[in-house]
Amino acid sequence: MNLTVNGVVAALPDDPRVSLLDLLREQLRLPGAKKGCNQGACGACTVLLDGERILSCLTLAVQCEGRSVTTIEGVGAPGALHPLQQAFLEHDGFQCGYCTPGQICSALAMADEIRRGVPSHVTGDLTAETIALDRDELRERMSGNLCRCGAHNGIVEAILETFADQTEQLEAAE
């Protein structure tokens, strides 16, 4: 039984009770996803499972059999940051940095949700072909990722800057 993590095939643990978070951190030595609350309330452990954001502390590793996991270590590269990672630096979207990996993974999935037209609880027009990424929409979609340091304003600015360009490109192509 295997899963793929950041493009590399990895064996699943023998113990079916191991969380995906513990597999990533303790066995695969990928410390990016953080164990914050270990109850699914803070979002520090957010990773992508087949492109969808999940809380790895609430996901059993065996549930990911045959699937693809992307952690923050699989986003960008040293010397070649993902544009969102660069925007976090430029907008001071982190202070202690503990929540940053989960924030970035969540924002990447959020941008994909918007591209696919998936509405949120605050989406005004459910019949619109495109969803505008404004501050209210962004804050609602990112509400599962908490920052204890109070860097939310920088986080919001980094995400808006990164994905505003993509939204404009999508609209120009239509």
UniProtKB/TrEMBL annotation:
Pfam families: Fer2, Fer2_2. Residues 1-75 form the 2Fe-2S ferredoxin-type domain. CDD domains: fer2 (cd00207). Keywords: 2Fe-2S, Iron, Iron-sulfur, Metal-binding, Oxidoreductase. One of its GO terms (molecular function) is 2 iron, 2 sulfur cluster binding. The keyword Iron-sulfur applies. InterPro entries: 2Fe-2S-bd, 2Fe-2S-bd_dom_sf, 2Fe-2S_ferredoxin-like_sf, 2Fe-2S_ferredoxin-type, 2Fe2S_fd_BS, Aldehyde_Oxdr_Iron-Sulfur, Beta-grasp_dom_sf. PANTHER family: OXIDOREDUCTASE, IRON-SULPHUR BINDING SUBUNIT-RELATED-RELATED. This is (2Fe-2S)-binding protein. It comes from Caulobacter endophyticus.
